Amino acid sequence: MTTVYVPLDSVAVAMDANAVAEQLTKAGAAVIRNGSRGLAWLEPLIEVENGGERIAYGPVSPTTVADLITNGFLHHQLIEHPLCRGPIGSHDFLQSQTRLVFDRIGHDSPLGVPDLADVLRALAIPPDDLIEMIEISGLRGRGGAGFPAHIKWRTVRETDAPRKYLVCNADEGDSGTFADRLLLEGDPFRLIEGMVIAGYATGANHGVVYLRSEYPIAKTIFEQALEVAREHNLIGHNVLGSDFDFDLELFLGAGAYICGEETSLLESLEGRRGQIRVKPPVPAISGLLSMPTLVHNVISFASVPAIVRLGGDVYRDLGVAPSSGTMSFQLAGNIKRGGLIEVPFGITLREMVEGYGHGTLSGRPFKTLQIGGPLGAYLSQRELDIELTYEAMADIGAGIGHGGLVIFDDTVDLAEQARYAFEFCELESCGKCTPCRIGSVRGKETMEQIISGRASDQEFNMIDDLCEVMDRTSLCQMGGMTPIPVRSAMERFPGDFRQGTRA
């Protein structure tokens, strides 16, 4: 019986992967539902076992799989078919990557228990030495600000309290991002391993994964993975035979973008409306239930096992110091080959857009990309040769954020995009502070005047003033970052804003 791997990833399922799997089962294949390898433009990308190699076909639909079956691909007779992508391990999109977080994804069922050597190795290291390893590695938060991880870890460990917690922010709401979802759907044990290690190092015995409500497949898989983890003693009492106890639970968010901000997330976990907390105190000192809490996103926790496996110095030497290790970049928008690319920091934007992405899907000229989510900067063609590091992005007024890159061709109107930035803030603001709550509304109204061609210099000055107030006085990054897409669009593409140049 031929084994065929069919992704259960959300993108593949949206493209009828379930129907493809059903047809293959009826045809007599042994179907294994695996995670996606991140080649989104080829989903559903199915793989057929062939003498130790896995031959990939994609994108496969219920119609085309019937043709493949009829022509004998289950018997390895159809290597020259237009949908055949050859051995998946040799695909150019994957070969040039350095996968440390996503190295296992797509190989098997997401519920298969992996080798737990990294956790066992970590549990044999004194907690303070583990934190020192994280410091040496240079790991920084992969969710947005790029804050050094070891500072949070050491603060939680050294703060005296009766209980300590871990919270994983899996409320992945930024446009063009899907790395958290890919991992939770395809290799949930990578996150569990990272959280167990972090709990041991910081002295936390309980963890919570705060999951975006729009990820039902990830919810189902992660709940099942928690059951399997308990059965194999990866979580629970005396983890893997040690004297360390650690439990983990899943919490489903309610769909608020603001809950991606760590203190709003904590408010939501405690049963209140998602509103930001004034800092200090920081969550590492007083977080969930006023206890010391280590808050990281999915990729931050999931990076930990590789650091334990390789050693802090080896991990540090990947990338361009002080931007160390690998980052999971995601290509989306108007791009031929959208997907996930895990590489060391230092790759250029051009290598992303033209190398991995093969340019725009429309075939029209590239105009801009937005990096770092809906509150990220718009960059131009002139900046494509800049390296993707925290420092290089900061130098041009941008940030890496969660690694999302959304591509636009020359038909995009940056004035409309700037208006949308204000509108997004208006819709998603928690309402706690006036600059964000009111500034976003006034900004949207003023931008609409500019778009209509009725604006004078007064309206442009109003946008400048609003951006300065929001930047300097908002209580959190929701309002504080809204000026970034507005200013970057106006500075780099002034022709889209001035009357007489607009269509």
Task: Tell me about the largest β-sheet.
Answer: 5 strands, mixed
Annotated CATH homologous superfamily of the largest domain: NADH-ubiquinone oxidoreductase 51kDa subunit
Find the structural class using helix and strand composition.
alpha/beta
Spatial strand arrangement across the major sheet: 2-1-3-4-5
Question: Residue ranges: pLDDT <50 for 5 or more in a row?
Answer: none
Tally of domains = 4
Q: Give the tally of β-strands.
A: 16
Helix content: 25-40%
Fold and architecture overview:
With 503 residues, this protein is an alpha/beta fold. The protein folds into 4 domains: 3-91, Glutaredoxin; 117-315, NADH-ubiquinone oxidoreductase 51kDa subunit (Rossmann fold, 3-Layer(aba) Sandwich), CATH 3.40.50; 318-409, Ubiquitin-like (UB roll) (Roll); 414-496, NADH-ubiquinone oxidoreductase 51kDa subunit, iron-sulphur binding domain (de novo design (two linked rop proteins), Up-down Bundle). Helices cover 40% and strands 16% of the residues. It is built from 21 helices and 16 strands. The protein has helices at residues 10-14, 17-26, 62-70, 92-95, 117-123, 127-137, 149-158, 179-186, 188-202, 216-231, 262-269, 298-302, 304-310, 312-316, 349-356, 390-395, 414-428, 434-452, 457-473, 477-481, 483-492; strands at 3-7, 30-34, 46-50, 53-57, 84-87, 165-170, 206-211, 247-252, 293-297, 319-320, 323-324, 326-333, 339-344, 366-371, 377-380, 404-409. The strands form 4 sheets. The protein has a 5-stranded mixed sheet, covered by helices on one side. The protein has a 5-stranded mixed sheet with strand order 13-12-16-14-15, sandwiched between helices. Strand 14 (366-371) and strand 15 (377-380) form a beta hairpin. It is globular. The termini are far apart.
